[in-house]
Design goal:
The chain is of the alpha/beta class. The protein folds into two domains: 119 residues, Response regulator (Rossmann fold), CATH 3.40.50.2300; 115 residues, Winged helix-like DNA-binding domain superfamily/Winged helix DNA-binding domain (Arc Repressor Mutant, subunit A, Orthogonal Bundle), CATH 1.10.10.10. Helices cover 56% and strands 11% of the residues. Strands 2-1-3-4-5 form a five-stranded parallel sheet, sandwiched between helices.
Length: 247
């Protein structure tokens, strides 16, 4: 017997959510939410396979929900809906792996058809082991490290190198290795990484960063050093890949 997929309908419109739930009831294990922070709590506890997400939820918007979901290592198949779609929204949802984006008001039957399409993709038996470089790149983007800065590329290589050898000295071994890979000098690598972290820190999502970095005794989140940033990301990606590989 094939186990039913779990689906979360996160939408503030009770009318739309009721109609959608009625049409898919029995085919999925269903949960519903109407507010952003509630949605994040349900995602963490319910761990849906399919997420129908209104990007304009009150309390916590859909883009923030997608970032926090990715940061938690969860990867539901997402059908996003929105009454307003800009270039930023399209770019953001594409970068975060959203399977389909629909403009509201949505035809319920068309929504069900798209959910069915996404469900079929989930049911495909082929399993692809996560690619470390892609995983690191996605995490850097999630934390807001600007791709236009040289430090982004240096950080990616540094995290990958740290995953390969966690015991190596950052200053004496890791920076020179990254410098050789990127045709730079160790001091250029060190300074560019610091600048990239500072740029991401300035525009950070505080709640998202607290998923990775610990606050000080006063409850404040200090800006991580190069070493702390690289090590924490390396640990996070390694753990996520280990969990995915064991499934």
């Amino acid at each position: 017997m094939v186990e039913k997929l779990k689906m979360l309908i996160a939408d503030a419109s009770e009318e739309f959510a009721d109609a959608l739930a009625d049409m898919v009831r029995g085919a999925y294990i269903l949960r519903r939410s109407r507010e952003g922070r509630e949605t994040m709590e349900v995602i963490n506890s319910f761990r849906p396979d399919i997420l129908v997400l209104d990007l304009m939820l009150p309390g916590l918007d859909g883009i923030s929900i997608l970032r926090q979901t990715a940061a938690a290592g969860l990867q539901p198949m997402v059908l996003a809906t929105s009454r307003y779609v800009s270039d930023y929204v399209v770019e953001a949802v594409s970068r975060m792996g959203v399977g389909y984006l629909m403009l509201k008001p949505c035809d319920v039957r068309a929504t069900v058809a798209r959910i069915s399409d996404l469900s079929q993709r989930l049911k495909q038996p082929l399993f692809t082991r996560p690619d470390p470089r892609t995983a690191v790149s996605n995490l850097l983007l999630t934390l807001g490290v600007p791709t236009k800065l040289r430090g982004y590329a240096y950080l990616r290589e540094a995290v990958l190198e740290r995953m390969r050898d966690p015991a190596q000295s950052v200053t004496k071994e890791l920076y020179p290795t990254v410098a050789a890979l990127c045709c730079a000098t160790p001091i250029q690598v060190e300074r560019s990484i610091r600048s990239a972290i500072a740029a991401a820190w300035t525009k950070r999502d505080e709640q998202l960063w607290r998923l990775y970095f610990q606050p000080d005794p006063d409850g404040q989140l200090p800006r991580p050093t190069n070493t702390a940033f690289i090590s924490r990301l390396a640990d996070s990606v390694a753990l996520a890949m280990g969990a995915a590989g064991s499934e």
